[in-house]
Amino acid sequence: MPILTKTEAKALLTKVLSYSKAEQCEVNLNCSDSGNIRYARNSVSTSGGISANSLVVSSAFGKKLGTATINEFDDASLEKVVRRAEELAQLAPENPEFMPFLGPQEYGADSPTFSPATAAVTPKDRADAVQASLKQVIDSKLNAAGFLSNSMGCSAMMNSKGLFAYNTSTDVAFNITVRTDDGKGSGYATRGYNDFSKLNAKADTAIAAKKAMSSVTAKAIEPGKYTVILEPTAVAVMLENLFFSMDARQADEGRSFMSKTGGKTKLGEQLVDERVNIYSDPWNPELPTATWSGDGRPQQKVNWIEKGVVKNLYSSRYWAQKTGIKAIPFPGGAIMKGGTKTLEELIKGTEKGILVTRLWYIRTVDPQTLLLTGLTRDGTFYIENGEIKFPVKNFRFNESPIIMLNNLDEIGIAERTVSAESEANYLLPPLRIRDFTFTSLSDAV
Amino acid sequence: MLPAIPVFGKEISPEQALTYIDPAAKKILSDVALNAARSKGATYTDVRVGRYLNQYVVTREDKVENIVNTESYGIGIRVISNGSWGFAATDKMDKDSIAKAAELAVTIAKENARLLREPVKLAPQKGYGEVSWKAPIEKNAFEVPVKEKVDLLLAVNDAAMKGGADYINSILFAVNEQKYFASTDGSYIDQDIHRIWPTFFITKIDKATGKFETRNALSAPTGKGYEYLDARPQDKIQTASGTLYKGRYDMLEDATQGARQLGEKMKAKSVEPGKYDLVLDPSHLWLTIHESCGHPTELDRVLGYEANYAGTSFLTLDKWESKKFNYGSKEVNITADKTEVGSLGAVGYDDEGVKCGKWDVIKDGILVNYQAIRDQAHILGLNASQGCCYADNWSSVQFQRMANISLQPGKAKLSIADQIKNVEKGIYIVGDGSFSIDQQRYNFQFGGQLYYEIKDGKIAGMLKDVAYQANTQEFWNSCVAICDESDYRLGGSFFDGKGQPGQVSAVSHGSATTRFNKVNVINTARKI
């Protein structure tokens, strides 16, 4: 089903609101059309095409809220879903933290989240991209497993206070693991785009293949503290745990790495190295994201960490009102300001260290210190005198991104990357970090 | 792989959840898809008409944060055409939209056939005709009034707060999968599956130092109805650490003891790193079994189908063919079971119409089998699938997912107290905590909820900052004693993640309290 235009969405939501008898009513619409192809053992495995829409109606009487959903859009169904939300609201207990819906908001210029090239992708286009990737791997006598997906969607919301928001978006994800036939080498590449025409599956396959071939016959070296260079994909899985933990309420309540004694927080304090600048910007051309959040709040450019100092925390509207802070929503993407050096230049400037191309299975060990554990994967290399000397066996690490960003040595050029854990896209640089803590060896390849 | 973030469908009202769609209507829709796919050139088709219901009640301290009923209803159509799989799904349930989705599935299959190395080979499967299966629950959670659930959670919160907690979040999840499967083999299978998971997270803060500790519920997500929350005396096991739960759960009691234990945890000694004998409670061990045995014995991982995401497996086919790969000590017997009553993985038939069963995976410490589906069975020389196929939604394509993988109890009589009595220097761990394992399942690290130091056969107080790291094969070979059947309990997860696009699956893991000798324990305390 083609996605709804702004005019169609507005007409649909206006009709839904016309049925409302509640004190307040808010309607959210989501529609999506997506396709994917998966391959492994140098052959296609599963694939699919999925179409799904939903309409969520929230009705409120005082501080009592009811929510109901439907995916049939005829008049009778629309009226039914509004009545149902109102019935639920009357049955619900009062929520003292309920916030009235927002009035009209200014969202600024549209963000370029939609690409016509992606919207036009067919099953044949996906198969062509995978064929190019597979040919290269098979010609090199290697083994590939990969995934390519594309989606387009629209989201819109309208409420009885006059708020209306609309956005369309497209997404492309491509990732590939190439392994040597003897299973002794493995390499990975991952990309995320809004625009399918930017995808070069063949080039990304070449990156993964090179890592696979150069990671065979890995040597075991002792775990311990090492200088590491983290490629952007590895940086992503460490830093997103920091992004996910910057909630104001958690910090104020004393149960976050941001908390201090006496109900105080580290907001406004130097938390990490002064060269660390982390922000979000819906209009960044490399990482465009929606200009509004699911509850209608505008998404704006926000500095989260500036020169190592924590500048802002995100919060619910309720908590912001209660504590008198600005109600900043969780951002659509995160960006760390990069330096000027390429990854190769970072390697060249390393006397002794380890190049980490990917980290995997990251989990929080201690929320107090944001201590994380996980492992290196798909290509880990020993560096000496500015050169990669040999591949090394994988390590388990136990490290906190806070400690890591205090042990910052050098920042490279930022690029769009993807977290292999959350699948979220970010703009992040490679980082050279001192004293990164590896606690044991893994036999995994 | 277990994700931290739950996945939900869209929201519906409670009364909608109580209607059940007539199987005859689902058969008509299924036949539309089967016929449309056949007419476009499919040589095999299966159809799943799915209605997936969730209810979650979310509270914190004295407030109800959210009460949401969600529903996901639609149809997924999987075909083989030109030897290749194709799949399409839609939530538009008119006949035209279903026929178009069937056509898209065939188009995708034909387009992808040029990327095949060899055509899909399905193990034979007889059609069962029109059959049904219902989870043997006593009380449908969706029929219990929301107020009763809210009252329970608020009472639980109140108990924890009175016990000295600073914060508590409590949640009750209820799941109902109404699945209808039809295939060109001649099966029309209607199944009604229920799951429930009450849980909480208590936090206590030391105001002077700013340090905080947490204690999560010792409940297990289960394949039961609301009766899971009606704990009887025979469902409780009294130990040195407090009450543990077998089969049913007393949430109020656990919140009360949880707040008390959290007070002890705040004052606990930070662990001295080193080698310890570990005595692991089933509320903890289920996760270690899941990660270090459940995943590496999944045949798709062994073969490389998950290489790009969840990873492969160290349990390669040559180790299975040798018939002598010692995965663990002779004490270690691990079974796969899709039929265990009350487990999360129990169904009558899997999502490709195969009747479910039980089989050995590790026998007397030796790797003897894997977990397979129809297009993999021939690789193991099997002439039938083991029934491990599952899709988490009508919109997801089915693939190989984990059966309930459980460590069998010891044959000799052995209690928890006996286990502890026999340990000179050890740690008794209750509840699951932090978890991580490599992509081939060699190296893992686990934390827990409660850690008790064992000195000369006695509990010598609580520890904190504990995590253990081990190699899977060394760990299971250090298994020296397993409590008897009377201590056998199920743990599990609602949200085991795998596949691309990612899907979740619910799975249980049974065990009795088990001892592992000389495992490496690290101290996780840091300063920032």
Q: Profile the largest sheet of chain B.
A: 8 strands, mixed
Mean pLDDT of chain A: 96
Distance between the first and last residues' Cα of chain B: 29 Å
Distance between the termini of chain A: 43 Å
Estimated share of beta-strand residues of chain A: 35-45%
Tell me about the largest β-sheet of chain A: 9 strands, mixed
Q: Please state the structural category of chain B.
A: alpha+beta
Q: How many domains of chain A, as an integer?
A: 2
Helix content of chain A: 10-25%
What is the CATH domain class of the largest domain in chain B? Alpha Beta
Report the helical percentage of chain B: 10-25%
Question: How would you portray this structure in words?
Answer:
The complex is a heterodimer of chains A (445) and B (528). Chain A has 445 residues and is of the alpha+beta class. In chain A, 23% of the residues lie in helices and 36% in strands. Chain A is built from ten helices and 21 strands. In chain A, strands 7, 12, 13, 14, 15, 16, 17, 18 and 21 form a nine-stranded mixed sheet that branches. A six-stranded antiparallel sheet of chain A has the order 3-2-1-4-5-6. Chain A has a six-stranded mixed sheet with strand order 10-9-8-11-20-19, with helices on one face. With 528 residues, chain B is α+β, with helices and mostly antiparallel strands. In chain B, strand 14 (358-363) and strand 15 form a beta hairpin. The longest helix of chain B has 18 residues, at 23-40. The relative contact order of chain B is 0.14. Classes of the chains: A alpha+beta (445), B alpha+beta (528). At the A-B interface, strand 1, strand 2, strand 3, helix 2 and helix 4 of A face strand 1, strand 3, strand 4, helix 2 and strand 19 of B.
